[in-house]
Amino acid sequence: MKLKNLFLLLAIAAISSAESHGQSVNDMTVRASEGRALDGQVQLYIRPLVAEVEVDKAKGRINEVWEITAEELASRSIKGNTQATIENLKAYGVFKTLEKHNCDIVLAPLFDVAISKNGASVRVIGFPGSFKNWEIATDDDLKRAAAAASSKGLEASPELIKLVEK
After folding, report:
1. Sign, Cα dihedral of 54, 59, 61, 64
2. What is the DSSP string of 27-57?
């Protein structure tokens, strides 16, 4: 039985090697951007943090337009899902704005997304803000967060509910 499995494995390897030998290789560039990500492993729970947001009054309201080429647009598009494509473009606009203004968040953001065959433009308008005075959330903070979610018709995460019920 083991010899049969070994022979089968060698045959598959030989076939896939022969198939890939004649194929051409295309260069490909992959680029991904993500903001405000905090990932923990499944067996790890990170107690939530709270912070204050300080608005940059010196900059005031910012207004940025990001032009996207047709090639870049193709890489950011979700075929058959225009709304998902628009969300991707808005996220890209926020990322570029945060990067340019060296801030953590754009408060009260407004977006204008225009898509054409030549590419796209994303306008981001809002107030740049930075997080300060980071602290571990207290039980009162968690209760306020759960109440705020509930008042908006949202469901608090099971982890937050467990912490609040302690």
Report:
1. negative
2. ---------S-----TT-----EEEEEEE-T
The model carries a pTM of 0.64
Rounded CA Rg of the chain? 24
Q: What is the pLDDT along the chain (166 residues), one digit of tens a residue?
A: 454 554 444 445 544 444 444 444 445 555 666 655 555 555 566 778 899 999 999 999 999 999 999 999 998 988 889 999 999 999 999 999 999 999 999 999 999 999 999 999 999 999 999 999 999 988 888 888 888 887 877 776 666 666 556 5
CB 97 within 8 A of CB 124: yes
Torsion of CA 106, 152, 162, 143, to 10 degrees: 80
Cα–Cα distance measured from residue 166 to residue 162, given in angstroms and rounded to the nearest whole number:
6
